[in-house]
Amino acid sequence: MKGNPMEMNDMVMLSIDDHVVEPLDMFEKHFPKSMMSDAPKLTAHPMNPDLQAWVFQGLPIGNMGLNAVASWPKEEWGMDATDHSEIRPGVYDMDLRVRDMDANGVLASMMFGSFTGFAGTHLANLPDKRLALAAFQAHNDWVVGENPSNHPGRFIPMGMIPFYDMDESVKEIHRLAAMGCRSISLPETPYGVGYPDFRSGHWDPVFKALCDTNMVASLHIGGGFGLIQRPAQMDFTDMSSFFADDLIILAALVSTVTATDVMLSGVLKRFPDTKIAMSEGGLGWVPPWLDRMDRHMTNHAWTHLDSLPAGMTPTEVWRKNFLACYITEPSALNNRKRIGIENIAWECDFPHSDSTWPLSPETLWEELQDTDCTDKEIDLITHENVARFFDWDPFTHIPKEQATVGALRARATDVDVSETSKAEYRRRYELAHA
Q: 272-287 in b/e burial notation, b at 16+ Cβ within 10 A?
């Protein structure tokens, strides 16, 4: 990129995959008052009284350590449970989250839940569906309503639906659309979490409602983890096994299964305006998968596959209907023309273990330079593709000159992004809550 006039501090960065550990007062504020005695409550974890967990319908749901490692020394990372007291406050306090975004030069964020499951899978599997629905709506009222309203221009609203009930799901989509929601999180492989697949027709009312409201289906890796079969001796609870390594390395490759499921389901033929964001799905798998899909349609015409809009190749459908989302892939951008330069979007993944925070601009800029991306390609990858695909204007509330990496970081020079231990966070938390 020699001679390129753009500098790192000129980038505008939108992240369409971040995560939130639910704030302490979310359900106190938004759960129906008439049902408050049955609302999710933070209390001592039954199996580890030293930590707190959300308890809902009699079941504790803790927070896994890898979900909130921001600022921790790497030797403290792991699958072990943690709670609000041990994690960086910006993980759950949105005033501080915005400050952490400023320090990382990120203008806006789209957040997936933790207690709820990425697509609400935890809530959906609870026995009392009436209470589960109330929890879905309380979470949505916070993540789509309260939080973006409190921080205009800093959060791209994304909700969840009670996908065990299609009628309620459609109602919720339309309710959220009226609130300004731009996306709905769906399980990436529904059959991986015990629900019908996309080709079954079960999800058709949801896809129709998403098209009617011009919202994106965000399919985050995670629902398909159970499809990754590894040797029987590997134990998810035993960190001396290799399962953690296998899971972390192979997880994004489930996106090939997800994308194939969508392409073969007939959803894009029945609802050709459907928009699919492959959240944390990565880029590298896309070119060979498209090559295979395109050749299959001609080389294996004998199968009479008829799942795509008439006259369109898989590559053409990909370019129209999909957005590939990635954190860091140093070599993948070399294939950006095959992927589609308008089909690529960057993401931060804060505060998860794959996140590049607080050096996201430096990490991304180096990769963009090494692959000779033009100024226009940089703008597409960092924010323009997201703005177009999600129909969300990043400059409605914040002028572009105040939205750049350099401008945001200039107002966050006092934010401490140094390495901080769990014990130190717990000490500070206990002092603040004494």
A: eebbbbbbbbbbbbbb
Distance separating alpha carbons of residues 189 and 294, to the nearest angstrom: 22
State the Cα–Cα distance between residues 151 and 395, nearest whole angstrom.
13
Check if CATH label 3.20.20.140 holds for domain 8-432. Answer: yes
Q: Give Cα 38 to chain centroid, integer Å.
A: 28
Helix (H, G, I), strand (E, B) or coil at 93: coil
The one-letter code for the residue type at 383 is H
Tell me how far CA of residue 7 lies from CA of 130, 345, 360, 369, in angstroms. Answer: 52, 19, 14, 10
Q: How far apart are CA 318 and CA 291, in angstroms?
A: 12
CA 39, 45, 50, 51 torsion: positive or negative? negative
Interatomic CA distance for residues 61 and 213, integer angstroms: 33
Of 183, 123, 134, residue with least CA distance to 159? 183
Give the Cα separation of 128 and 21 in Å (integer): 23
CB atoms within 10 A of CB 356: 19
What are residue 158's DSSP bridge partners? 183
CA distance 76 to 65: 9
pLDDT digits (tens, 9 = 90+) for 258-297: 999 999 999 999 999 999 999 999 999 999 999 999 999 9
How do the domains of the chain map onto residue ranges? 8-432
Q: What is the spatial distance between Cα 336 and Cα 380, in angstroms, rounded to a whole number?
A: 11
Lookup result for tokens 């890796």: 221
Segment holding 314, helix H or strand E: helix 314-321
Q: Burial, 333: exposed, middle or buried (Cβ in 10 Å; 0-12, 13-18, 19+)?
A: buried
Non-local (6+) Cβ contacts of 122 within 8 A are 61, 115, 116
Distance CA 204, CA 196 (A): 11
* Predicted TM-score of the model (pTM): 0.95
Tell me whether residue 203 is exposed, middle or buried, using C-beta atoms within 10 angstroms of its C-beta: 0 to 12, 13 to 18, 19 or more.
buried
SS3 127: coil
Q: Which residues, 6+ apart, have CB-to-CB distance to 273 below 8 Å?
A: 211
| CA 395 to chain CA mean position, Å | 22
Q: How is residue 152 written in tokens?
A: 């205009």
At 173-220, the pLDDT tens digits run 999 999 999 999 999 999 999 999 999 999 999 999 999 999 999 999
